[in-house]
Design goal:
about 300 residues; alpha+beta; five-stranded mixed beta sheet; about 60% helix; rod-shaped
Length: about 300
C-alpha cells in the first residue's frame, strides 16, 4: 500500500489498485479534476447539510453517496464538519474542509496494519469506528466536566449565578449536539446494513457499531439528565439564598417595629404627656426601644426563626 499526494500522479496508478481518494480543503480546480477523472460528483455544501434521509444516504446501482458530519475539535468545545463520501468500485472517495482527528487516526491504523485495509469499505468502516470512539471520548470528558461542576456547586466553590447558568447551558448545548451527531451515525449505519451494495461480510462490524452507539446514547442521556438535576439544584440554592435574604429583611423589619412605635409615641407634641418634663425621659425612651428590639430578637431565636 502506498500514499500519493500529487493529483496528477493518480493518473499513473491503475484504477484497480486505488482504495481511497481523500480531498481535504481542495481548490476548485483539484475538486473538478478528481470528479472528471473518476466520473463522480461530490455533494455540495448545501446538500451535505440537508437533514432529509434521501440527502444523507442514497444508493445508485453499485455507488453509495453518503453525507454525514464528523466532529471537529476546537480550542473550546467542538464543531460540525460536513463530509461528502462516495463508495464506488471498491474505492472510497471523501471530501472535507477540516483536518479531522478521525481521519488522522485512521491513517495511522492503515500504516500500522496495511494488510487489514484492502478495500474502500474497510477504510470507511475504520473511519466510522474511529469517529464513534472519538464521540465516546468527548462524552466521557463532558461527563467529567459536569461532575466537576456539580462538586463545585456542592462545595460552594463557584462563580456568580450568571456564570454557573451559562456553564450549565453550554454543557446542555454540547450534549444535544453530540446526541444529534451520534443519531446521524446511527441512521447511516442502519442504512448501510440495509444496503445491497455494501459488502455483507462487513455487516457484522456494523452490528457491533450499532450496539456501541446505543451505549453512547445512554451515556449521553445520563449526562443530560444530570445537567437537569444540576440546574434544579442550582435553582434550589438560589431560592435558599433569596429566602435567607428576605428572612433577614423581615426579621429586621419586625425587630424595629416596637422601637419605631415607641419613638412615634414620644414624637407626639401633646402638652399632657407626663414624660416631657421628666429628666430621665430621654434615656428611658432609648432603653425601652433597645429592650423591645432585644426581646423581639430573643423571641425569634427561641422559636428557631433565626
Amino acid at each position: 500500500m502506498a500514499k500519493e499526494s500529487d493529483i496528477e500522479a493518480l493518473r499513473e496508478i491503475p484504477m484497480e489498485q486505488m482504495i481511497w481518494v481523500d480531498l481535504q480543503n481542495p481548490t476548485l480546480e483539484e475538486k473538478i479534476t478528481i470528479e472528471t477523472y473518476f466520473d463522480i460528483k461530490y455533494s455540495s455544501e448545501e446538500e451535505s447539510q440537508e437533514i432529509e434521509m434521501s440527502s444523507r444516504f442514497s444508493e445508485v446501482e453499485d455507488e453509495l453517496i453518503i453525507n454525514t458530519n464528523f466532529l471537529s475539535l476546537r480550542e473550546k468545545g467542538f464543531d460540525y464538519c460536513p463530509v461528502s463520501i462516495i463508495l464506488e468500485k471498491n474505492i472510497l472517495f471523501t471530501y472535507r474542509d477540516d483536518d479531522l482527528k478521525s481521519f488522522g487516526e485512521s491513517v495511522k491504523k492503515i500504516k500500522a496494519s496495511p494488510g487489514s485495509y484492502l478495500s474502500g469499505p474497510q477504510i470507511f468502516l475504520s473511519l466510522l469506528e474511529t469517529a464513534i470512539d472519538n464521540d465516546a471520548d468527548i462524552i466521557e470528558k463532558l461527563a467529567k466536566n459536569i461532575a466537576s461542576l456539580g462538586q463545585q456547586m456542592v462545595l460552594r466553590k463557584r462563580g456568580s449565578d450568571e456564570e454557573i447558568l451559562i456553564q450549565i447551558s453550554s454543557f446542555q448545548n454540547e450534549t444535544m449536539s453530540l446526541r444529534e451527531n451520534i443519531i446521524d451515525k446511527q441512521r447511516l449505519i442502519s442504512s448501510l446494513m440495509k444496503s445491497n451494495s455494501f459488502p455483507d461480510e462487513h455487516k457484522g462490524l456494523l452490528r457491533i457499531m450499532i450496539r456501541d452507539i446505543s451505549s453512547i446514547l445512554e451515556h449521553n442521556k445520563f449526562a443530560f439528565e444530570r445537567l437537569e438535576y444540576l440546574q434544579d439544584t442550582f435553582m434550589g440554592f438560589v431560592n435558599i439564598e433569596q429566602n435567607r435574604i428576605i428572612k433577614i429583611f423581615t426579621v429586621a423589619t419586625v425587630a424595629f417595629m416596637p422601637p419605631t412605635l415607641i419613638a412615634s409615641i414620644y414624637g407626639m407634641n401633646f402638652r399632657s404627656m407626663p414624660e416631657l418634663d421628666w429628666e430621665l425621659g430621654y434615656g428611658f425612651a432609648i432603653a425601652v426601644m433597645v429592650l423591645s428590639s432585644a426581646f423581639t430578637l430573643f423571641y425569634f431565636k427561641k422559636k428557631n426563626w433565626l
